[in-house]
Amino acid sequence: MQRQLIGEPAHPLGAATAVESAVWPGLRIELGPWEPGWLTAQEFFTSAAAIDDFLAHERALYPGADLKSSAAFMMRDYLSIFSLATVPLFLGHGLVPDLAPARVALWFHDVVHEQDGRTYAVRRAHVRYLSQAYATDQLDAACHADAQAVADRSVLCEQFRAGLEDHVQPLVVALKARTGLASGALWRLAGDAIAGRFLDVGKKLGRLEEAKATALLILKQPGSPLANRQLHFFDIELNGDAGCPLGVWTFRARGGCCRYYTLEGGTVCTTCVLKPANERDAEMRAAIRRHLGLDETASG
Questions:
Q1: Which of 114, 134, 171, 238 makes an SS bond possible with 246, Cβ 3.0 to 4.6 Å?
Q2: Which residue segments constitute the domains of the chain, with CATH numbers given?
Q3: Is 298 helix (H, G, I), strand (E, B) or coil?
Q4: Structure pTM?
């Protein structure tokens, strides 16, 4: 980890990673040098043994999953880790670290979960930024020697998008070569994960509309492999008795498919791109009513 001398101002990126590590359960992101036990993302992406181990982990979680489904689950799970290490820094602090695979280190570990009487291990990773360089549109952070100051948030969005693409590209190449799952399908899953994380962070910060607009600006750039027509956000409005409004819930409509429906007993996920919008909305509305403990027969 980064060592700070007494009286020395905190490094903006190091301070931000410390804040976010305390905010998000199970997250540990930090700024510091490579140490034994850490694996750079570049080493991970180019190691057939490491990729195969992750795919085997997914098959253990989802018995009967073929290679393509395992690749979809792996992309989803890796991007869940990576988006939690990047999106809060971007939206909460206006910082984009150096996301080059050679300068992002990972410490993989499994976390045991229990659900519906079943105990299983989920693959997670701590994330360490090896470079102190970062881009920012924030005046206070821009004064640091390691900062690349940019003019405004739109330019920072472009920096973030380019960093995401550079980071994810070698993983897409590796998974396509190993499993045969199409590049487009893998990029769609990556975009879904990033969009979902922007939604989570925006809700937590009380800046939902900003988060949605920023995510779409990053993920909908023409020519970007992250861009697809189907990915978007949608709202579910719910009314109670006599039409009294109960609230509005915002969700992400996926542009991709994790292939869970291909498993024995699997189904199409509620927000999957394969689910018709009217069926999706009806299922989401019913789920919200159940969560609120409302009578399904009441007006919705």
A1: 238
A2: 12-228 (1.10.510.40), 231-300 (no CATH)
A3: coil
A4: 0.91
C-alpha span between 271 and 192 (Å, rounded): 10
pLDDT tens over the chain, length 300 residues: 555 444 456 899 999 999 999 998 778 999 999 999 999 999 999 999 999 999 999 999 888 899 999 999 999 999 999 999 999 999 999 999 999 999 999 999 988 877 667 777 888 999 999 999 999 999 999 999 999 999 999 999 999 999 999 999 999 999 999 999 999 999 999 999 999 999 999 999 999 999 999 999 999 999 999 999 999 999 999 887 777 788 999 999 999 999 988 888 888 898 989 999 999 999 999 999 888 888 655 445
Please answer whether residues 89 and 11 qualify as being in contact, where contact means their C-beta atoms are separated by less than 8 angstroms: no
Q: Which amino acid is at 291?
A: H
